[in-house]
């Protein structure tokens, strides 16, 4: 009995075709991309340690060109010149030109400048260190400002 050739009569190369919708290819590509991004993120999280930075150690500055805290009471904050972050005041922090000290609520601070002058910073006060003069900005309860 003679056997039938399924797709024609030639004995040459025979190729079967099937169709794939364009949307299926987009879905496959998006899935592969999402897996690559997720894998990259997981790899980054595993290889990059999480480090919580504490406040930087106080710099060692000679007292001749700095000011120091002598006394701290309550919530006293310091913003170093050129930064936007308020950090808790400590007695070992050296205050330099354009540093800002802020007292809130019932807090106060006593600061000794390099020339021996002492200032008592009272509650609700912003104290800015400058070389030629000290600027005091007092915030009243109604948030009006006075500069001396």
List the helices and strands and how they pair.
Layout: H1 22-47, E1 67-73, E2 76-79, E3 87-88, E4 94-95, E5 100-103, E6 108-112, E7 118-121, E8 125-128, E9 135-139, E10 145-147
Antiparallel strand pairs: 1-4, 1-6, 2-3, 2-5, 5-8, 6-7, 8-9, 9-10
Structure report:
With 148 residues, the chain is α+β, with helices and mostly antiparallel strands. It has a domain at 63-147. It contains one helix and ten strands; from the N terminus they run αββββββββββ. The protein has one helix at 22-47; strands at 67-73, 76-79, 87-88, 94-95, 100-103, 108-112, 118-121, 125-128, 135-139, 145-147. The chain has a six-stranded antiparallel sheet, with no helix packed on it. A four-stranded antiparallel sheet has the order 4-1-6-7, with no helix packed on it. The protein is rod-shaped, with a radius of gyration of 35 Å. The relative contact order is 0.11. The mean pLDDT is 78.
Q: Outline, from the CA principal axes?
A: rod-shaped
Strands of the largest sheet, in order across it? 3-2-5-8-9-10
**Total number of helical segments?**
1
Give the helices and strands as they follow along the chain.
Answer: HEEEEEEEEEE
**Overall SS class:** alpha+beta
Contiguous uncertain segments of 5+ residues: none
Average pLDDT score: 78
In total, the number of strands is 10
For the termini, the CA-CA separation is: 116 Å
- Biggest sheet layout: 6 strands, antiparallel
Radius of gyration: 35 Å
Give the percentage of residues in beta strands: 25-35%
In which range does the helix fraction lie?
10-25%
């Amino acid at each position: 009995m003679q056997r039938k050739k399924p797709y024609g009569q030639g004995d040459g190369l025979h190729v079967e075709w099937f169709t794939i919708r364009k949307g299926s290819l987009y879905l496959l590509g998006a899935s592969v991309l999402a897996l690559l991004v997720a894998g990259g993120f997981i790899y980054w999280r595993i290889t990059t340690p999480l480090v919580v930075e504490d406040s930087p150690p106080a710099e060692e500055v000679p007292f001749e060109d700095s000011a120091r805290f002598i006394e701290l009471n309550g919530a006293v904050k310091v913003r170093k010149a050129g930064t936007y972050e308020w950090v808790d005041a400590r007695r070992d922090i050296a205050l330099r030109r354009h540093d800002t000290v802020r007292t809130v609520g019932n807090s106060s601070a006593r600061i000794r400048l390099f020339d021996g002058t002492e200032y008592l910073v009272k509650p609700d006060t912003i104290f800015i260190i400058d070389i030629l003069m000290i600027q005091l900005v007092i915030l009243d309860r109604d948030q009006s400002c006075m500069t001396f």
